[in-house]
Every structure is written in structure tokens, then in C-alpha cells.
């Protein structure tokens, strides 16, 4: 007599093997209830996870993923997998500091083989695993282990997924691709592949009718032979997935991804075919929880307690702040009202980038390309050289996917594309895959690029206008997650124009000079205020505004007047704004007492809040004040000495 299968008592996924479909179905009910209860508390990717419960249980009941390998694309849908692989009891810590990651993470479990967060790559990575496991033996069926890639329909539409699939098919890899088709990306899936998958969905009834007709016709001799002649034509027209079959991939589907028996059976059958199989499962995003199923976009990622209680009460005395994303969204609509050449581009993130309002107001000038950053960037280049003013809104971390297109189709063509780079900085709960800490470093080498960051809402709008007005070169404007100060410092009318390479001085003081960029200007000003009020230290604070080109006149002047100079940025120290200033100093014989503040050379783990991560990186006002106090007090003797230029040996 085996004990009942209870989620809380599972020791390992091995407990699922040999269980009846009914027992596993009951486990699915438990998992779904746990997902709703726990993710509504912690926040996270609710809808996607509710949709893969049966698939995940089936996968772990058919395979042993300590021998075989399971790769999740993006891996935002890995919560049931985590619950089944020994992490159920830690679920209250999901996406919290020191707790479970919201994605697969190699440090967390031997069952997580890819620390993932970016879409489209699971098939390629799994292909690599399958290549490496060739000839190894010891898989669940005794032969070489299987590599299984679970991919959503939107991730499947990324170009790299196709690159992986065609490679794997040609190499006859022991690879099973589980396509989890729920018709949704974050918003509804777009593009011709999504249309094709939906045709397959709707052809299901037609296909069944055709098969019945075929059987009947074959029982009548003359009709049967005639039908043969049209066989190939009918097959192409009616057999779902023939596009994949033509590529040499065994296509099976569409299958009901919520029918556990079907899921298991399909997986088992796939292991009997010794080459690449694509199992096309139809699922429902948000399955089993009405608020999530009815609004898949809102339930893709939920805030903690989203469906239960309203957010924390706002402090009435505090000035209301809009998020950087909302500020951008409103600014780009206002700009597009005046400037008909403005088009907005997103790679599958219309609301995440703040473009939902633009899409509604200017549908014909709005382009959601799907998870196709490479295409989005290259297309922006083409639009720009033909006279449009494309604003390409892509998160810092996902723009990495389009890097070569920024180089060739944009920078090399001097195409006036404006990149709106959101989530440029620390991102809090999402973790290392989503940190936007490298954009300055990877964009800075390209000749002619303008790199800038506004410090507040007023300047975001002004910078965007300046960027769109510049017809000679590409611009990238960056801002982080979180809320923007409305107006920090002088009002718009008295600020310097947004001319590339022009910084803005915000405070004066003899004791040292702070060069800050973007959202960090606020922390720098606050740190300077603390030192003024508490330590009688007076700092000159600049909003650098541009990382490229730098304000060289300002640098020359500042280096001549100050011994102590600090740079502050929400970016990796390697290759960022501070690096640019240090390079300038090296090239111009300036040797200030330079203190660079940014994120150190390590991957930043997820944390409950971005503020915690800022503090851990020493980028909050208190940490900055402390660091400068130590530096200035420690060096108080020489604080006002002119900079020392090292003598030649
Ligand atoms: C390269 C890249 N671009 C954008 C994203 C943002 N993103 C995260 S999940 C997601 C939608 C994924 O949809 P799908 O693959 O269909 O999975 P589902 O959530 O529907 O299960 C997007 C666009 C990403 N993770 N990676």
C-alpha cells in the first residue's frame, strides 16, 4: 500500500513515478491551490504557472531529471517544478531577499539546469546538453538521457528558438520540445507564427473530420484510390504542424495540456522516437483561478496581494510620484501628437515599457514585434534611415539580445533611432537575469551614439524631445525601475538645453565634486545635503546628463578646482559612467582623488526591494554620505590642494 500523494510530504519527484493518473490529478489540484495562495501573497508570475501544472507533473512523472534534463524557457513558469523538487516549504520566501528565486537558478537545485530569465534560448541550450550527453547512457529509459525544453508560444516565436530547432532536427538530437501554447505572451501573442499556431488550434476539428472521412472513403474502393491523389494536398492543408514536419521535426498535436493522461502519454510516446519531437500542448494561462484566467495580461506578473487588498496607503504629505515608465509613456504620446514621424516599437512588452497608451492613441504608428529584440532594433534602423523617428522601447537587459543590430543597423548607419531603455539599474525581485546594469558599458564603444539619463520627469520629457529632434545619430536614454521625482532642482525654463555633452551644475561647494547620472542624482544631492547639515562639508554636485559625449569643458574645469571627485551611477562599475570619467582623466593628465560609486563586479541576486539592492551597493544617500565623509575627513589636510599630476619617471 503506497501512502497518499501529498504535496507537503513529497520527498522528491521520484515519488510521482508509478502513481495513477487520478493520484497525480489530485496533486495538481493541490499545486494549483498552493500557487494561488502563495503567489498572491508573495507576488510573482501567477498566470503562466497556473497553466503548466499538469504538464510539469507529467514531465516529472515520466522522466528522472537528475539523469535527463529539463530546461525552462524564461523559467518564469517553473513554480510547480520548484514545488515538486524540494522547494515547496520555502515558497513563502519566493522573490524575497535570501529566499527562492522567481526563476530557475543553478545554485538553488540540481533540477535547475539553466539560470534563466531571457526568452527563446531553451531549445538551443537543451541542444547543447543533448550533444554533450550523446553516448553517455543512463537516461530514464536506459539509453542516452533526454533533453526536454519547455517553451511558451511567445518564447517559441523568438528567432533563436527557430535556430535551435532547425539545428537539433538536422542533428537528430534526443530532444523533446514541449510547446506550451496559451496564446499569450505578456500581452496577446503576435506575429505570423502565433497566427499559424492558432490555425492549428482551429484546424483540430477539421482535422478530425478529415480523418473520419478518410477512413470512410478507404472502405469504398474507387473513392479511396481517387482520394489518394489528393492525399498530399490534403495533408498539407489539414495536417497540423506540417511546417515543422518539413523541417524534420516530429510534430505531435495539438494536445490538451490540462489532460494529465494525454500529457503523460504524449511524453512517453515521444521517448520512443529517437529524434526531435515537438509536442504542441494547448493550455490556458491562469487556469483554475478566475481573476487570472479572465485577465491574463494583468495576472502575468502580480504584485504581492494584488487580488486581495489594495496597495499600501500613500503618505498624503509626500508628493505624488509617477513611475519612470509612466512618465515615459505620457511623454512619448505628447511628443507623437506634435511629431507625426514618431513611431513606437516594443518587443512584446507594450505595458511594461509604458507604451499601452501610445498603442491606443496611435495604433498605426505602434509596433509590437513579439519577443524579437534583434528584429525590433534592425527594423528601427530601417525606419530611421527612411525618415521616421522610431522610439524603440526595450528594457536594458533585453536590449542585450539586439546588441549586434544596435551596432550594424543603427550605429553604423548613423540611424537616428531613439532607444528608451527602461529598467536600467537594479530591479529588485527579478534577480540577476533582469538587472539592467550593463547598457552604458555595451553601448559606450559605438562611435556617434549619444547616451544620456534624465534625473527627473521634467528632464525625461525634455531629453526625449531633444533625442527625437536630432536627425544625425542614435540616442539611448536610460532610467531605472521605480518612481521618478517630478522636478528635482530648477524648473524646466531655467535648465540648460539638452545638447549632447552638456552637464548641469546643481550645487556649489569647495570641498569636493560629485558627478552623478540619472536617477542617482537624487541620492547624490541628498548625500550632499547630509554632509552640509551634519558635517559642514560643502560639495559641488553636477547632473552629468550625458555619459557620451561627456561634458569635457566641465571635466577640465572641475578637475582643475577639486581634489576629491566622485562619480555615482546605477550601473556596473565596469565600463560605466565612472569608467568614462576615469578614462578621460587618464587621457588628459588629470589625477583627482577619484571615488567611483556603482555596482561591483558580481551578479546581483534578487531582493525584496530595489532599495535594498541600492543600499547593498552603497548607492543610497546614507551610504554615499558615509563614504564621502570618510574620504574627505581622512584626506582633510589636502582637501583643497590642486590635483597632482604624476611626474614622468
Ligand atoms: C529576450 C526577452 N524579451 C522579453 C522578455 C520579457 N518576457 C518575459 S515572459 C514573456 C512572455 C512569455 O510568453 P510565453 O513564452 O508564451 O510564456 P507564457 O508566459 O505565456 O507561459 C516576456 C515577453 C524576456 N523574458 N526575454
Provide a quick synopsis of the model:
The chain has 649 residues and is an alpha/beta fold. Helix content is 41%, strand content 14%.
Features:
single chain; 649 residues; alpha/beta; seven-stranded mixed β-sheet; five-stranded parallel β-sheet; 25 helices; 19 strands; 14% strand; globular; binds thiamine diphosphate
Written account of the structure:
The longest helix has 27 residues. Helix 5 packs parallel to helix 6. The relative contact order is 0.08. With 649 residues, this protein is of the alpha/beta class. The radius of gyration is 28 Å and the shape is globular. It is built from 25 helices and 19 strands. It starts with 20 loop residues before the first helix and ends in a 15-residue tail after the last helix. Strands 8-7-9-10-12-11-17 form a seven-stranded mixed beta sheet, with helices on both faces. Strands 1-2-3-5-4 form a five-stranded parallel beta sheet, sandwiched between helices. The chain binds thiamine diphosphate (TPP). The site of thiamine diphosphate has 26 residues, from helix 2.
Helix-strand layout with pairing:
Layout: H1 21-42, H2 46-51, H3 53-62, E1 69-72, H4 79-87, H5 122-133, E2 147-152, H6 159-171, E3 175-181, H7 192-218, H8 221-229, H9 231-238, H10 242-246, E4 250-256, H11 260-270, E5 277-282, H12 290-294, H13 296-300, E6 322-323, H14 324-338, E7 342-346, H15 356-361, E8 366-368, H16 373-385, E9 389-393, H17 396-399, H18 403-411, E10 418-421, H19 439-443, E11 450-452, H20 457-469, E12 475-478, E13 483-484, E14 504-507, E15 512-516, H21 520-535, E16 539-543, E17 546-548, H22 552-561, E18 564-572, H23 577-587, E19 593-599, H24 610-616, H25 621-634
Parallel strand pairs: 1-2, 2-3, 3-5, 4-5, 7-8, 7-9, 9-10, 10-12, 11-12, 15-16, 15-18, 18-19
Antiparallel strand pairs: 6-13, 11-17, 14-16
Helix pairs in contact: 1-3, 3-11, 5-6, 7-8, 14-20, 16-18, 21-25
Thiamine diphosphate binds at residues 48, 51, 74, 76-77, 117-120, 152-155, 180, 182, 184-186, 285, 347-349, 371, 373, 398, 401.
Amino acid at each position: 500500500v503506497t501512502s497518499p500523494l501529498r504535496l507537503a510530504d513529497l520527498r522528491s519527484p521520484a515519488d510521482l513515478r508509478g502513481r495513477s493518473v487520478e493520484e497525480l490529478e489530485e496533486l495538481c489540484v493541490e499545486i494549483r491551490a498552493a500557487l494561488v495562495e502563495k503567489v498572491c501573497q508573495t507576488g510573482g508570475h501567477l498566470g503562466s504557472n497556473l497553466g503548466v501544472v499538469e504538464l510539469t507533473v507529467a514531465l516529472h512523472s515520466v522522466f528522472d531529471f537528475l539523469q535527463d534534463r529539463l530546461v525552462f524557457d524564461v523559467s518564469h513558469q517553473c513554480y510547480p517544478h520548484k514545488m515538486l523538487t524540494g522547494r515547496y516549504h520555502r515558497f513563502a520566501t519566493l522573490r524575497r531577499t535570501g529566499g527562492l528565486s522567481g526563476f530557475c537558478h543553478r545554485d538553488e537545485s540540481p533540477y535547475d539546469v539553466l539560470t534563466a530569465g531571457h526568452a527563446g534560448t531553451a531549445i538551443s541550450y537543451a541542444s547543447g546538453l543533448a550533444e554533450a550527453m550523446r553516448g553517455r547512457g543512463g537516461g530514464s529509459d536506459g539509453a542516452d538521457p533526454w533533453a526536454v525544453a519547455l517553451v511558451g508560444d511567445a518564447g517559441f516565436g523568438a528567432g533563436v528558438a527557430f535556430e535551435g530547432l532547425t539545428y537539433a532536427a538536422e542533428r537528430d538530437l534526443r530532444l523533446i520540445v514541449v510547446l506550451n501554447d496559451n496564446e499569450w505572451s505578456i500581452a496577446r501573442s503576435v506575429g505570423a507564427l502565433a497566427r499559424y499556431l492558432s490555425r492549428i488550434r482551429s484546424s483540430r476539428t477539421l482535422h478530425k473530420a478529415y480523418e473520419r472521412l478518410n477512413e470512410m472513403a478507404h472502405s469504398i474502393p474507387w473513392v479511396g484510390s481517387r482520394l489518394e491523389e489528393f492525399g498530399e494536398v490534403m495533408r498539407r492543408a489539414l495536417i497540423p504542424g506540417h511546417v515543422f514536419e518539413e523541417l524534420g521535426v516530429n510534430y505531435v498535436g495539438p494536445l490538451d495540456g490540462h489532460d494529465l493522461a494525454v500529457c503523460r502519454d504524449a511524453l512517453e510516446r515521444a521517448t520512443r522516437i529517437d529524434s526531435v519531437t515537438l509536442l504542441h500542448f494547448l493550455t490556458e494561462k491562469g487556469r483554475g483561478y478566475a481573476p487570472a484566467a479572465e485577465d491574463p495580461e494583468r495576472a502575468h506578473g502580480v504584485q504581492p496581494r494584488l487580488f486581495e487588498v489594495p496597495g499600501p496607503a500613500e503618505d498624503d504629505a509626500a508628493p505624488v510620484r509617477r513611475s519612470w515608465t509612466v512618465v515615459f509613456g505620457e511623454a512619448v504620446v505628447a511628443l507623437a501628437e506634435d511629431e507625426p514621424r514618431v513611431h513606437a516599437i516594443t518587443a512584446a512588452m507594450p505595458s511594461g515599457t509604458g507604451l499601452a497608451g501610445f498603442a491606443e492613441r496611435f495604433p498605426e504608428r505602434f509596433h509590437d514585434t513579439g519577443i524579437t529584440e534583434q528584429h525590433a532594433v534592425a527594423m528601427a534602423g530601417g525606419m530611421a534611415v527612411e525618415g521616421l523617428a522610431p522610439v524603440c522601447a526595450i528594457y536594458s537587459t533585453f536590449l542585450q539580445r539586439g546588441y549586434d543590430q544596435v551596432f550594424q543597423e543603427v550605429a553604423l548607419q548613423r540611424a537616428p533611432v531613439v532607444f528608451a531603455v527602461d529598467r536600467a539599474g537594479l530591479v529588485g525581485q527579478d534577480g540577476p537575469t533582469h538587472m539592467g546594469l550593463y547598457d552604458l558599458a555595451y553601448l559606450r564603444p559605438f562611435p556617434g551614439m549619444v547616451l544620456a539619463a534624465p534625473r527627473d520627469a521634467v528632464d525625461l520629457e525634455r531629453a526625449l524631445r531633444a533625442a527625437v529632434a536630432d536627425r544625425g545619430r542614435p540616442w539611448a536614454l536610460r532610467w531605472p525601475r521605480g518612481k521618478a521625482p517630478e522636478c528635482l532642482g530648477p524648473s524646466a525654463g531655467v535648465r540648460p538645453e539638452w545638447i549632447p555633452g552638456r552637464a548641469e551644475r546643481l550645487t556649489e561647494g569647495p570641498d569636493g565634486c560629485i558627478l552623478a547620472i540619472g536617477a542617482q542624482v537624487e541620492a547624490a544631492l541628498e548625500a550632499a545635503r547630509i554632509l552640509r547639515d551634519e558635517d559642514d562639508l560643502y560639495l559641488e554636485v553636477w547632473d552629468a546628463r550625458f555619459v557620451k559625449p561627456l561634458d569635457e569643458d566641465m571635466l577640465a574645469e572641475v578637475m582643475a578646482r577639486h581634489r576629491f571627485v566622485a562619480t555615482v551611477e546605477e550601473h556596473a562599475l565596469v565600463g560605466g559612467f565612472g569608467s568614462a570619467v576615469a578614462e578621460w582623466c587618464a587621457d588628459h593628465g588629470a589625477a583627482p582623488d577619484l571615488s567611483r560609486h556603482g555596482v561591483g563586479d558580481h551578479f546581483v541576486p534578487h531582493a525584496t526591494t530595489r532599495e535594498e539592492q541600492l543600499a547593498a551597493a552603497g548607492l543610497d544617500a546614507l551610504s554615499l554620505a558615509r563614504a564621502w565623509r570618510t574620504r574627505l575627513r581622512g584626506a582633510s589636510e589636502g582637501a583643497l590642494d590642486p590635483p597632482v599630476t604624476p611626474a614622468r619617471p
